[in-house]
Design a protein that fits this description.
2 copies of one chain form a homodimer. Chain A is an alpha/beta fold. The first copy, chain A, folds into 2 domains: 273 residues, Crotonobetainyl-coa:carnitine coa-transferase, domain 1 (Rossmann fold, 3-Layer(aba) Sandwich); 79 residues, formyl-coa transferase, domain 3 (2-Layer Sandwich). In chain A, 38% of the residues lie in helices and 15% in strands. Chain A has 17 helices and 14 strands. A 6-stranded parallel beta sheet of chain A has the order 4-3-2-5-6-7, sandwiched between helices. The first copy, chain A, has a 3-stranded antiparallel beta sheet with strand order 8-9-10, with helices on one face. In chain A, helix 1 crosses helix 7 and helix 6 crosses helix 8. The longest helix of chain A is centred in the middle third of the chain and has 24 residues. At the A-B interface, helix 2, helix 6, helix 7, strand 7 and helix 8 of A face helix 2, helix 6, helix 7, strand 7 and helix 8 of B. Strand 7 of chain A pairs antiparallel with strand 13 of chain B.
Chain lengths: 408, 408
């Protein structure tokens, strides 16, 4: 059997000093690790990245949440409040190409590791900051979590039913979505840095990142003159029908199917009507044009729903795909976790961590048909000796002495 | 006044032949353009990128939707079905570092511009494909739009109210979210290509991209043993309170405020109770620990809502930020469009296109305190002469003759 995974070597030799925690920052540096950079997490010896311990008061257990966002990284546990510990981290920063942090506003400054200080010791470094709100924003001191970004950056305003309070999109793209934009910027800026030798300060606000993902809703606002509305399961633009979620056989919470037809391709409409045995409606004056289909969409949805509710969501999806109508069953996390082709083609892999084995998703872009090979997330401090030896040439005895002094 | 914008030169000299359309592909290549690459859209002389014309039957008008996703790019209008047109595009591909497409499955192959063919004429090229479903998926022939990806990749399953049908997250991160992952991969792979001279095939499926953004929901499933649920406006993990949307004064559709308190920081809880004048509840047995706050969250939400409903959402947000409690008002697209500090710090810019002027958002990462300067989106075929002259050395007379032959 051919191996469908491989190590990516895009960033061979690139060194990253990683102060990130939780998700917006860790997802960013994980991309660098997956692309072959040596990413070293700098963690507090007591508790480490707080996402190692999502159950306060209980022992560290490095849950799935932590493992998923820290695969392929290394970990040093070092006390940044000891002068010796801080000095060692500064030595690491001197050797680094990239550093990243997403701490609360003011924290990195209090450690003396702000951009101006780090730039003095390493003018070649790309220094990356993720914050909730940008400098210059009235909210710049605000703490940010995924849901705060999704509120203040727009996503919540467009999600839910019209005339009802909004809901939060259930996934955390406030975090991961921000991390991806910073990852792309680092990878871009590194091209320039390699050419010019000149470091840069890269800063992203989670609120701004959300606006970036909201641009189709801004387009809708520009067309209608009103703020983009909530439209339930309908597409946000609101100028296309039939399009929406339809009930499938089974009656479970996710037994639904998304079907859409594009105005740009009138064939979608005729193919759909033929499939459900309603050729009679193709030229029916209630439905014959895109405009009247939008006007009469409720009636039309009922007709299509009669057909979909007699079919299993996967069967209906395959029937629609076979005739060239865009369709997607609503899959939940368990169905996706158990989707056999994810594993067969290397998108989901079994990976061993120090505390167990998971089947989890890797980077979703395939290169020459192969996916990034997952390596386990590190135990807290697992690579202290390896990295201090490799980057700084510290001998085992030096490290042991420092450990006695409480630096690690 | 200092200019808060700048041209980014990360990709100085990098050439991109861009076959993308609509959103998942165009957002990807726009990042390359913003980072300084020369990105040339290859468009059909008749109608161009279909997103130039979202009102079929009406004249092209290059709406906001098109302009937002194609800023800083160039456009060639060329007939790929004429042998001469195809030959010219192949000459452009020979000079390119990167090419990208997100057409329906099979389309690029029918044009004879599939990876194997392009690799033969340019083995150094990074060839990028965006599809709805991956090769090897049972759905690999499926057409994809944003909402299909959000159904089949999980986001819809976790969005909405429990015990109700799901809703679609209102924004199009099925498209833009996919584009960003491909952009990061291109920028990473280019480092390797610059070192090795060896091109690569990069492929992403929108379904897989959605799984990438769903990972926190997978973590919740791993903790609970059940598929991640819909939780209305509550955070997806479900193990933290108080956290959620609270009504603000005004009663408008977006007069809401997200407040969250982190278990990892018990101060959030005490600060919040002090602010709303309910110190008495801090040690109340119904609310004294994280666990009981989760159990009694409905009662607690009512108490907090009494306070928030007396305050404007912005005032409440600022009061909460001032005492160090994570909070975000729900802003709609109009409020964000009119947020003055977005413009003051260069995140939103006035940009002239051939057919008008907009105030729109640029790339959200600031570099050394400055944002990417926006240039207008191109008119269809605006740069045909410029690019064919610059890349291939074609003279004006050659181009005129080809135009007579119907190539452009």
């Amino acid at each position: 059997m051919t191996d469908v995974t491989q190590e990516f070597k895009f960033l061979d030799g690139v060194k990253v000093v990683d102060f990130t925690q939780f998700e917006a920052g860790t997802t960013c540096t994980e991309v660098l690790a997956w692309f072959g950079a040596e990413v070293v997490k700098i963690e507090n010896p007591g508790r480490g990245d707080p996402s190692r311990r999502l159950r306060p008061g209980k022992p560290d257990d490095d849950p799935w949440y932590f493992r998923q966002f820290n695969a392929n990284k290394k970990s040093i546990a070092i006390n940044l409040k000891s002068p010796k510990g801080l000095e060692i981290v500064k030595e690491l920063l001197k050797k680094a190409d990239i550093t990243a942090e997403n701490m609360a506003p003011g924290t990195i400054e209090r450690l003396g590791l702000d951009y101006e200080s780090v730039k003095k010791i390493n003018p070649r470094i790309l220094y990356c900051r993720v914050k909730g709100f940008a400098g210059g924003s009235p909210h710049e001191k605000g703490l940010a979590f995924d849901m705060i970004a999704q509120a203040a950056g727009g996503p919540i305003s467009v999600t839910g039913w019209p005339d009802k309070p909004p809901v939060k999109p259930g996934l955390s793209f406030g975090d991961t979505g921000t991390g991806m934009l910073m990852a792309a910027t680092i990878l871009g800026a590194l091209h320039e840095r390699n050419r010019t030798g000149q470091g840069r300060l890269l800063e992203i606000a989670m609120q701004d990142a959300m606006v970036h993902y909201m641009r189709t809703c801004f387009a809708t606002m520009m067309r209608t003159g009103k703020p983009a509305q909530r439209r339930g399961a309908k597409p946000s633009a609101g100028n296309n029908a039939p399009a929406g979620l339809f009930p499938a056989k089974g009656g479970g919470p996710n037994d639904y199917l998304y079907i859409t037809t594009s105005r740009a391709n009138p064939e979608h409409w005729t193919r759909l009507m033929k499939l459900i045995g309603r050729e009679d409606l193709i030229e029916d004056p209630r439905f014959a044009t895109g405009d009247v289909r939008v006007q009469n969409s409720e009636e039309l949805d009922g007709i299509i729903g009669e057909w979909t509710s007699k079919h299993d969501k996967r069967d209906a999806m395959e029937k629609l795909i076979a005739i060239g109508v865009p369709a997607g069953a609503v899959f939940d996390t368990m169905e996706l976790q158990n989707e056999p082709t994810f594993e067969a083609r290397g998108f989901m892999q079994h990976v061993k961590h120090h505390n167990g084995e998971d089947k989890m998703a890797t980077w979703p872009v395939r290169v020459d048909g192969k996916s990034v090979r997952l390596k386990g997330a590190p135990a807290l401090g697992q690579h202290t000796e390896e990295v201090l030896g490799g980057w700084l040439g510290l001998a085992a005895a030096d490290i042991a002495a420092l450990r006695n002094d409480g630096v690690f």
